[in-house]
Design brief:
Distance between the termini: 50 Å
Number of domains: 1
Order of helices and strands: HHHHHEEHHHHH
Number of helices: 10
Largest sheet: 2 strands, antiparallel
Helix content: 55-70%
Number of strands: 2
Radius of gyration: 17 Å
Structural class: mainly alpha
Organism: Holdemania filiformis
Pfam families: DUF5662
Protein name: Catalase
């Protein structure tokens, strides 16, 4: 259930999205993605996303899930995924040759930002229960993998496994090396 009072939902949502944004920004900076860290999730403060977040705020999970349960879809999510390249859903397109929708392979720098986003989301919602295995466990339990471009899904899984197996600092060094190698090619 959502918090009952409007002020509690308003301040709770504002605090949650700001904490998440700051965490992602710090993680992006640590990975060398300065511009992406600064610009990450600014759309969450836009009216369509912010007010949907306030209305469906619960504090222990994304308001997007609650809005989808209530309405069957989320206006906030539709806006968010269309304005943020670190979400694989941004990279879905339509093609007459394919006669339908298809997923485009994401550039590595946005996959790296998605790693930061998933770590920060798990830290924000799981609080003290967070471990470096949390992001890969969340990824493997979800259905994202079956809809992502196969190369994007494999790369994200590899990066998240590095976080689990080596810790954030060592994993980020490996990801930075991988990003530099792909820029040279």
């Amino acid at each position: 259930m959502r918090s009952s009072s409007f002020p509690a939902r308003f301040w709770g949502h504002l605090k949650t999205i700001t904490l998440h944004k700051l965490r992602v920004t710090r993680l992006c900076f640590k990975m060398g993605l300065i511009k992406q860290g600064l610009l990450h999730d600014l759309s969450k403060y836009s009216p369509v996303e912010f007010w949907a977040g306030v209305r469906y705020f619960q504090g222990y999970r994304s308001p997007i899930d609650a809005e989808k349960e209530a309405k069957g879809y989320s206006e906030g999510w539709l806006h968010h995924k269309g304005h943020n390249k670190h979400h694989w859903e941004y990279w879905i397109d339509r093609n007459k040759q394919c006669q339908g929708l298809f997923c485009v392979e994401m550039p590595k720098r946005y996959v790296a930002e998605m790693v930061c986003d998933r770590i920060a989301a798990c830290q924000t919602y799981q609080k003290e229960k967070y471990t470096n295995a949390s992001p890969i466990e969340y990824f493997l339990q979800g259905s994202d993998k079956q809809f992502m471009h196969p190369h994007t899904a494999a790369l994200l899984q590899q990066y998240l496994e590095w976080v689990r197996d080596f810790g954030i600092d060592a994993a980020f060094k490996k990801i930075q090396q991988d990003l530099r190698r792909s820029e040279v090619v």
